[in-house]
Give the backbone structure.
Amino acid sequence: MIPPKPTPRPDRVSLRHYAQLFRRDILSAQPARLYRAWMAEFRTPFFRSYLCNDPALVDLVLTERPDDFPKSARVREGLKPLLGRSVFVTNGAEWRAQRRIIDPAFARGRLHEVYPALLAAAEAARDRLKAEAGGVVEIEAFASHAAADAIFRTLFSIPIEHEIAARVFAQFRAYQRAQPLLNLGALLPLPRWMPRFVPFRARRAARQIRALIARLTEARMEAIRAGRAPDDLATKIMTTPDPETGRCFTSAEMVDQIAVFFLAGHETSAAALGWALYLLARDPAAQDRAAAEAAAFDPARGVAGLSALSFTRNVFRETLRLYPPVPMMVREAARCERFRDRDVPPGAQIVLSPWHLHRHERLWNEPDRFDPDRWQSAAGRDSARCAFIPFSAGPRVCPGAGFAMIEGPLILAILLRDLRFRPLAGAEPEPVAQLTVRSRTGIRLSVEQSDVASRTHRDAKAAIGATGN
Ligand code: HEM
């Protein structure tokens, strides 16, 4: 099955036309040759940008010499009103100290501790959707709600219905409407000295989100002092000292970090979940296989039980390949470089594009096809080793990657145990890069109570009963 991809622009367009296309959607503003090229240079009198698809260059920038390719001030500027000096935007010693505190909370060995909260979020999402079974559901909005719920439950042990959580979520949606190109603004072909415009409505929403988060972190600080704080991610991060300096985050610093966990941790997972459900709806045979696996899966076994979801995990990986939530990442060359026989001046922008790398014609077989089984083939695994970076790579890799790879398959399995998804005729989503890769007009699917899953579920139960007798 070949799901939709944006129509690329012609190879040559004027800078003005490019800027117009870019503002409409960065994905369709790119020419088709980028799905074949190893590198592309974009030059204007005040701007040089290099898109790197050559795996050796991607590796150099992200893993081998990341300090020579920091995040640029352009990235920081657009995000500052919401994220302050969070780990997402800092560089150097400040960034390293932040990661030393954050990383232990997300260490693989500790992820079983967030499983109960993720399961509760998945079950709540299923119940909400069951109430709408028999109708048509806007799946992106549903997925955003589910992923935000998962973040609040794991960070602060509160569900999305909690008064402050609900207000943060609502303000966040207002923020996105006011500032849709947030993290891609750095890619705009504008001179470096030109200030980035952050709309008033976005600033106001950011202020309100931060004030609400401050209430949560202050209350948590008090609970920690009083010895009655729940053992969730917020407590772990607030009580973990930097192993080198012994210093913990202050309440004010925690606001920056919580803002980024909320932003980076729910928008991305929501985008992936929405596309995964769409891909399964378009491929009934794959949905049957995932539903059968889900029916036999025992959620009570915790993280260990997830090993039974191998096909569902491959569906989720394939979704991250075709619709990487973060379509492009931007870095800046700190000094002179030479990339594929071209001089790259200091200050040039280096663009790493999961979107192009994951669909690269010279790196993947049938790159546009949805094929979860490719993840079991040697060729698929070879391609993934050099051309699959949905979570980035190297020291700046997403700290939430392990969390997301539990959350995504788990929510899918819990939904597929009881529900079946079908596409609507004439409602093909068009992928566009907003804050993450979303559909321009949402993803509308018909949702029904599932016969296959309930039958298999009954069969599985009967089989278990028969064994017990
Ligand atoms: C499917 C889900 C997710 C995807 C595809 C994803 C992807 C990414 C990517 C590509 C980056 C690097 C961005 C860049 O360098 O410009 C990143 C960074 C980050 N992500 Fe995720 N992410 C996901 C889920 C999460 C979750 C669940 C959390 C936390 C709960 C999280 C927290 C972060 C943080 C804090 C950073 C900044 C790391 C740093 O710069 O050192 N992400 N993520």
Observations:
- Confidence is low (pLDDT under 50) at residues 460-469.
- Residues 87-88, 99, 260-261, 264-265, 268-269, 272, 325-326, 329, 390-392, 396, 398-400, 403-404 surround protoporphyrin IX containing FE (CB under 6 Å).
- The two ends are 44 Å apart (CA to CA).
